[in-house]
Amino acid sequence: MSDSGPAAQGGQQPVDPCVLPLGTQGARDYPFIMIMFGGAGDLARKKLAPTLFRPYRDNLLAHDFRVIGFARTQLNSQAYMAMIKESVIKHCEDPAPEDMLNEFVSHFEFISANFEDDSKYEEVRAAVEKGLPGVSQENLNLLHYLAAPPDSAPVIIDRLKHHGLAQGPGRVRVIMEKPFGGDRASARALNQRVLNAFDENQVFRIDHYLGKETVQNLMFFRFGNNVFEPLWNRNYVDHIQITAAEDIGIETRGNFYEQAGVVRDIIQNHMLQLAAHTAMEPPASFDADAVRDEKFKIYKSFRKVDEEYLRHNMVRGQYGPGRYGEQAVPGYREEANVAKDSVSPTFFAGKFYIDNWRWSGVPFYLRAGKRLNKRITEIYVEFKQPPLKLMGSACQDAPNALHLQIQPEESITLRFNAKQPGVGNIPHPSLLEFNYSKAFQTASYPPYARLLLDCLRGDLTLFARQDGVEAMWSVVDPIIQYWEDNPPANFPNYKAGTWGPEDADELMGRDGRRWRDFA
Ligand code: BG6
Question: Which residues bind NADP(+) (predicted)?
Fold first, then answer.
């Protein structure tokens, strides 16, 4: 492979979503070889392989592609194909014809390797040089997907550079999973390492929340309409709540969760991304950098907080045993690979301010947790009350609000007051609802599939940029630090199946507000 400079790698090509709708074109013109580091792990089996199958089945992928699993597991390519086939059958919603599945997995092969083993990178290099029949090296897209444990990233990145796999005659890209680093300093060090091998526009830092249809729709909703944007600011918005509640526990990820906790796992990435999409200014265009510039400004505008503020406005929790109907579930400390006296938080609630012109004084309440009452992710925008209570005090209880539900339903609901029929003057809170699946009669595209296609096409819009990642860490680092310095004495402090610790309700109650009630 020739060693052209990083600038020549230009991962990004302008993509106009209106000219190139994903549904009709996808990435059919992008033959590729994907090296899947950690290719036999959970992420690869549960998400990546089934995800890749979807656009393959929908004829949105080039026919020419190879996926090379690269991991420590002792497997040959035959066994790997069988593993991938089983994963696709297990994790794809719709059944697929046997011959299609067999054809799909025939694109997979496996290299059993330790991530330090130089000779195995030479094998990869030989495979890449061999390329794809009928595809010139210039037209070949090489993707390195780092689905391996985060601590192996530096080793893999260094080896890719050393073996000439970070650059090529064709386009070379690297996809990196969250959490990117464990705090700002480590994220910065990792970024430096990555940028020593790759150009920034070759680096696709993936956050699957950005692949969710409703999250993308937020930009269309805000900037494709003229009705709401004039109200989208401190003059009309009372406060914003973002909830990402999960009913599942940590499942088999005890080791990871003990290290990460909820702030590194969800708040630093998914939740701050949602906040940024909600709060950002209109970008100059839908160009990746224009969008990411605006998001970066939001992260930088998060108010810096001191210990006093943290003590009163950030709540942590850890689930104890509980029930979902008849089913009893263990507490966090009873899960596999979790210390009996663990202080790792599984719940977070906090109040933030974004100190910019638009949002000055508007609280953003963020809440996320495991083993809560139900699975729901929602952005809730509550508007201020009308200036006069001409309709009577009942209107006070039901201010206008927008509910942007991301999952399980994908919907947008506007609450407004209507007159209850009859002789009295009684206001009645009513709903205008838009439901994605009802409106389009189609399920939305799996987030990973959307993002993989974007990566193949070189569209970085829905991927985090270096400065954004570091700025997001700057928002959460003080919280993590303060909590690590002051371990909780009351864990576990909420029962599985509830809505989290009472402190979270008090946080809202002190401001005369309530969390959204999803009962
Ligand atoms: C992952 C977190 O990024 O997102 C998990 O690591 C979490 O802890 C998951 O369960 C939630 O994703 P989703 O799409 O189910 O909301």
Answer: 72, 178
